[in-house]
Amino acid sequence: MDNPKPFLKYLKILGSWRDVADAARTTIRMPEGQKEPSSRWKKRILLAEHSPVRKLLVSWKWSNLPYWVSVHFVRHKYGIEHFVSTQRTDRTGEDRTEKRQDAPVEHECFANAAEVMFISRRRLCAQASPETRAAWKLVVDELAKVEPELAACCVPDCVYRGFCPEFKSCGYAGTPAYAEAVKRYRTVE
User: Where in the sequence is the domain holding 94, given as residue range(s)?
Assistant: First the structure.
């Protein structure tokens, strides 16, 4: 069976940075502000992982995602909702037990910014399956076009932590490319 390549059907931002900034102001007993937050402020609050970042939501939908790759994403359950096309026999007219693990599904999600960063730590890691990494990279690449500060904080766990936490390292953490990635991640302009 030759399945079509997965693709991102859409990515949308729900909520706004104004909402995030106003929630941050609430937490420090300040009145709501009028000006739009700067790029520097956005990156700083994302790196700090303060709770108001959860007011920024990302919604996306994959098409032709292999069922087993979809299962990897469904394992993420805090700060995210999943809507996956059914394989039920009574709904599809096809015997579910005859479906292959790589049968394509539609997988739609919405998640807050904190969860988007967390998913990146797991799914951009070189120890994640290449197919899962590629599917998540579709999301991060599209996100970079509309929310560059958030996309810049979507890094593998080794870059986030400053070391590789895996039992079996891929070796990336010792490379010049890794050092540059850590520097880029930590830079606030």
Answer: 7-157
Structure tokens at 138: 């579709």
- CA dist., res. 43 & res. 25, Å (int): 16
pLDDT in tens, the chain (189 residues): 567 899 999 999 999 999 999 999 999 999 988 889 999 999 999 999 999 999 999 999 999 999 999 999 999 999 999 999 998 999 999 998 888 899 999 999 999 999 999 999 999 999 999 999 999 999 999 999 999 999 999 999 999 999 999 999 999 999 999 999 999 999 998
Asked if residue 181 is part of any domain, the answer here is: no
Q: Residue 23 belongs to a domain with what CATH number?
A: 3.30.1360.170
Q: Does a structural domain hold residue 185?
A: no
Predicted model pTM? 0.95
